[in-house]
Design brief:
This protein is of the alpha/beta class. It has a single domain, classed as Glutaredoxin (3-Layer(aba) Sandwich), CATH 3.40.30. Helices cover 41% and strands 23% of the residues. It has helices at residues 2-8, 10-27, 59-62, 77-91, 105-115, 129-134, 161-175; strands at 40-41, 46-49, 52-58, 67-72, 96-101, 121-125, 141-145, 150-156. The strands form two sheets. It has a six-stranded mixed sheet. Strand 2 (46-49) and strand 3 form a beta hairpin. It is elongated.
Length: 184
């Protein structure tokens, strides 16, 4: 009889356990997704340049100074929110490489024409292979890469003034070339 009464509580216990897992998952910060590539080199690649499609861009072409690799796409609404701030950073001297992720070339070119170009180079990742090598979950994502081509930080979500000041500007200050100027 007591066993039968305890059986009545099994659904309640299962519900409580599931609710605890759901609460834990929802309380995680989505911008803090771990990356297996932190403190590892940017993977080797050879991909087209969006604005000069006959030109291939390789890892060697982008390393040599601290930079941001910004993953963006025209289908990404958050990228539209982030883009004006990237333009501001570029005007302050921040080197940003754009990785156009799983997008079509012509709409991406139109986006750049319309919203401005904060990128020193825009690499095309139509099939998402480079994004897969970088561990990209979606857009926007931004990687801080030091002068030796080592990934030091990954930010998932929009880069804005708060993210710049609290996360990215300190990394530029830590890893910058003493001859380079990067504004806070």
């Amino acid at each position: 009889m007591i066993v039968n009464r305890l059986k009545l509580f099994i659904p309640l216990v299962i519900f409580a356990v599931m609710a605890a897992f759901l609460w834990r998952g929802l309380s995680n910060d989505p911008s803090h997704l771990p990356s297996a590539l932190i403190d590892k080199p940017v993977p080797e690649f050879s991909v087209p340049n969006l604005l000069a499609s006959e030109q291939r861009v390789t890892r060697a072409d982008i390393v040599g100074a601290p930079l941001l690799i910004n993953v963006w796409a025209t289908w990404c609404p958050s990228c539209r929110v982030e883009h004006p701030y990237l333009n501001t950073l570029a005007q302050k001297g921040v080197n940003i490489v754009g990785l156009n992720y799983k997008d079509e070339d012509e709409p991406a070119r139109e986006w750049i024409d319309h919203f401005g170009n904060p990128y020193s180079t825009i690499i095309v990742d139509t099939d998402g292979r480079l994004g897969l090598d970088l561990g990209v979950y979606g857009a926007p994502e931004t990687f801080f890469v030091d002068a030796e081509g080592i990934i030091r930080y990954k930010h998932v979500g929009v880069v804005d003034e708060r993210v710049w000041r609290s996360k990215l500007a300190p990394l530029f200050a830590q890893y910058r070339n003493p001859d380079a100027e990067v504004a806070n």
